[in-house]
Amino acid sequence: MNNFESVVAWQKAYKFTLLAYKVANTFPECERFGLCSQFKRAAVSVPANIAEGYKKLSKADKLRFYNIAQGSIEECRCYVYLSKDLGYVDAPVFNELMEALSDASRLLNAYCKGVINNGYADDGQ
């Protein structure tokens, strides 16, 4: 590995972000500066923090950025529930979003465990 694009957790997070943008763009105009904006901001934070953490030199710095990404995943999970409960997405879209989030979360958690347990420091040095 020599760049963040090769990290599968980043790939899944990026895929989720594209989906989140597509879905948020269908929200009512009244949500433009509310839920839509917050959802997009949190979604883009996930792959961005994975990318930034990738090049950090110390394990602690890497994990700090990966943890921020994990927090943004949970923030997105809240927005997905709100989107469903407010009637902005139907069940199939809700399920697609949740599955994409779960994939990204699972892979990021595994990636973090690799950094913690194996001292895996990517090629970000």
UniProtKB/TrEMBL annotation:
One of its GO terms (cellular component) is ribosome. The keyword Ribonucleoprotein applies. Keywords: Ribonucleoprotein, Ribosomal protein. Transmembrane segments: none annotated. NCBIfam families: four helix bundle protein. This is 30S ribosomal protein S23.
